[in-house]
Amino acid sequence: MDVNVLGVFSFNHETFGERIRLNSTISGLKNKICEIWNVLTPLSIDLFFIRDGKRYSIETDSDLQSLACFTFAKGETSVQILVGRIEVVSNSVVCSEVSSCHSITSSSYEQQGEVTQPLLSATWADVFTHVGQIFGGGAKEFRMKVLQYSIESGYGIKLSKNEPKRVTVVCSKKEQLGCLFKVHACRKFNLPHLFMIKELNLNHTCGAGFRDTRRPPMSSRLVKCLMLKELMDNPSTKPKDIIKRFKTYYGVDLEYYFAYAGRNLAMTEIYGDAAKFYSKLVWYTEALKKSNPGSHVVLEVDTKTRQFQRLFVAFKACIDGFNYFCPMLYLDGTFLKGKFKGCLLAATGKNANQAAEVDSVFKSKDYLSFGSTYWFDLTSKNKSRDYLVTLFCNCVYASTLFEFDKAMDLFLEVGGSAVKKFLNGASSEHWANALFGGNREELALPITFSVDSIRVKIMNMMTERRELCRSWSSYLCPNMENILTEKINLGRSWKVTKSMPNFEMPIEVNDEDKIEPPACRPCPGRPSKKRKENIGVVKKKAHTSSGSKSYV
């Protein structure tokens, strides 16, 4: 395989091209770079490239050849490689200088004799390299690059022309100070997804730029682009987590509005518009009925407004399972966290094993059912109930296993035997956040994703319990088998005498055997028949089926 990729090397706003093959070496490239730029030496050159917002160094021949193979396999004809300069500072600490920076930039700084990790925004000031540079995302990607350049360089920018086919960027101080900075890009071959720089002048004649970390020029679309991949991996990322990430990895203070709006845009791009998924419920319910014969699925919609009201799902496997449960159902519920809110209810029952609960739907917060069943016992049978309730809540909402163990030890120490009885038979993974095995944040997803995650949860749960039942060697469930064995062992020492088979109670009693009941005192007060009538009482007749009767 003939691997031949064009390497575009950039340093100090200057570029040159060199072919990279499988026989290319780092030393040969560094010598070539030194011939182009005399200020560099082979020992002071630092080669790296940026992909997906991360910095990757090129230190060995294998790194260079792997980059060429990767670029060739993706079908790309060129790869951009940035050239940095390594300098020794006064305290014998080595630091890497990016092409457009001075001795030490704002993105890589020295602290207590050590150079910290460069920020991910370190290369934003070098997003524009040469005339003819192509942006595969079209005008949207070009505008994002302009915003990144403004954030990192500290210069204010203005879009003098902002059209789908062409965009012109100038300095915000052009009218006041006549700054010559200008970047003009337009479509290449009139293709909407290809944008190419036609004119480039990166020289700011207005003075130095100031990088504002507290109120940088920001947009929710930039937040979406930077956080899209992380939200795919972890949909439970909250706006406050995005703010911390921007402060740590990009060195800017992000406002809550941009974090919230950017997260919503990213979630919409990943999962789609939540409102449109309600229209897909009709297809989804029909698919459930066809793929799960015997299931009961009911979708209720307001006939006048066509607004969603409720959805009931009972799978055939769950219906069959409830027939073998104890004749008692528990109802568990939790709130949905999506855009349109709502409530999720689940029917729960006890099987013959007594230790395992089989649910009809996904448990988002299992401690709700646990608390509704036993909360009265905890609060009414203990004098220090308020303090115990606080300790129990600490166990429920503990975020880590260490915090849960610490809170549980204190809960058991204070509560004693009453708490042990309260927790008997309730597995911690069913009510403690730290031990819960599911994904509670799926309640914030669109409705079809939430319902389908419930289906997958039930399917996995039933598969695990089916495999567990196959390992049973007795006819009874393990818990019942243990109880029966314990009772049998306890009764081995008992001596049981059999009653007389012909012993019967006589029907008639002889006169000699009659016994009268004990005498009792009459009820206090005057008998009703001898009571005197009050003056002025009118007698009324009450009509009955047998005739009339007078009463007072």
Description:
- This protein has 15 helices and 20 strands.
- A hairpin with a 2-residue loop joins strand 12 (182-188) and strand 13.
- It has helices spanning 26-36, 61-73, 138-153, 174-177, 220-233, 239-250, 256-271, 281-291, 316-322, 367-380, 385-396, 401-415, 417-423, 447-470, 478-490; strands spanning 5-11, 14-20, 45-51, 54-58, 78-88, 94-97, 110-111, 114-115, 134-135, 157-162, 166-171, 182-188, 191-201, 296-301, 308-314, 329-335, 343-350, 357-359, 540-544, 547-551.
- Among the domains are: 4-85, Phosphatidylinositol 3-kinase Catalytic Subunit, Chain A, domain 1 (Ubiquitin-like (UB roll), Roll), CATH 3.10.20.90; 122-201; 220-271; 272-369, no CATH class.
- Strands 1, 2, 3, 4, 5 and 6 form a six-stranded mixed sheet that branches. Strands 9-13-12-11-10 form a five-stranded antiparallel sheet, with helices on one face.
- It is α+β, with helices and mostly antiparallel strands.
- Helix 5 (220-233) crosses helix 7 (256-271), helix 6 (239-250) packs across helix 7 and helix 10 runs antiparallel to helix 11.
